[in-house]
């Protein structure tokens, strides 16, 4: 997937009754760019990050907690105990559970922002150390993604951004430390008469001093289609907004808020797709729970590999 960079001024929160400016400006001169680590050093247009993180904070109160606590390194936050709901957004309950760990609330807003598809929000508590990169792998790594998403064919980071230091400087460190940034391509399999889907998404991982993390993403625009890999095109799905916020509430627990507005594309009605998305995301959280609980040594292996990579740098 992909990760970020954009010259940001002061934190700008547009009216909570609707999103503000477009994330991408079609005029080339209006868009910040960043070079990639690909051999041809492709330059990637980047979204307006003030607008992006404004949107994330409107739909994810836990992300707002993480951003506002960005420089707080002492102790832990109360996680969901600190959130303040946006009064202008009317979420409807889809599902709930009294289980201590795992997904305990699923909500949605139908036809959010008038784009014809609902936005879904999942709240969960997980047991284990708050390591955002481990959760991100379940979304961005094909083998980890297959553990919960049976329809995934491939997902990979097609255009990793070259200079994260420049990204952090350009962002003014207002949204944490950008530890990964790039453009990713994702393809799902055809199944039961439904054709394959593909996405081209700019995504990032932003880490905070208190151990919190925001994993975010949004779909590239049609004028970025030159970044798609060669080959036959399939139906385009579109993530209007995606964020996962992990906030540590103790040394070994975290609250997690996962927000997704996914347009499947084609003629599939929302009443068919939303239950599938809910079921898949619950599977994702079960896999993440096993990972953070170190089932079969998964967490130990991840930390060992991460330490090895760090030693090679």
TrEMBL record:
The keyword Cell membrane does not apply. Keywords: Signal. This is START domain-containing protein. Residues 1-18 form the signal peptide. Coiled coil: none annotated. It comes from the Eukaryota. InterPro entries: START-like_dom_sf, START_lipid_transfer.
């Amino acid at each position: 997937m992909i990760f970020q960079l954009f010259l940001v001024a002061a934190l700008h929160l547009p009216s909570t009754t609707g999103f503000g400016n477009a994330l991408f400006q079609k005029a080339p001169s209006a868009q910040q760019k960043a070079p990639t680590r690909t051999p041809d050093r492709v330059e990637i247009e980047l979204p307006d990050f003030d607008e992006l993180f404004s949107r994330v904070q409107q739909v994810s109160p836990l992300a707002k907690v993480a951003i506002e606590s960005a420089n707080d390194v002492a102790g832990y936050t109360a996680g969901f105990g600190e959130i303040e709901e946006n009064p202008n957004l009317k979420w409807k309950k889809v599902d709930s559970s009294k289980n201590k760990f795992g997904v305990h609330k699923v909500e949605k807003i139908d036809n959010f922002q008038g784009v014809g598809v609902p936005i879904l929000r999942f709240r969960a508590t997980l047991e284990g150390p708050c390591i955002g990169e481990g959760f991100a792998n379940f979304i961005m790594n094909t083998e980890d993604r297959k553990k919960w998403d049976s329809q995934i064919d491939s997902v990979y980071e097609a255009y990793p951004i070259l200079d994260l230091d420049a990204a952090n400087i350009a962002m003014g460190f207002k949204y944490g430390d950008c530890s990964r940034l790039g453009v990713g391509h994702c393809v799902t399999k055809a199944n039961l008469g439904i054709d394959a889907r593909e996405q081209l998404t700019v995504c990032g991982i932003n880490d905070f001093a208190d151990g919190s993390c925001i994993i975010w993403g949004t779909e590239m625009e049609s004028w970025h289609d030159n970044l798609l890999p060669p080959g036959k095109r399939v139906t385009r799905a579109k993530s209007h907004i995606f964020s996962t916020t992990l906030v540590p509430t103790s040394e070994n627990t975290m609250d997690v808020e996962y927000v997704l507005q996914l347009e499947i594309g084609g003629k599939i009605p929302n009443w068919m797709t939303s239950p599938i998305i809910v079921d898949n995301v619950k599977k994702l959280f079960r896999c993440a729970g096993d990972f953070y609980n170190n089932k079969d040594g998964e967490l130990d292996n991840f930390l060992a590999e991460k330490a090895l990579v760090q030693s090679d740098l």
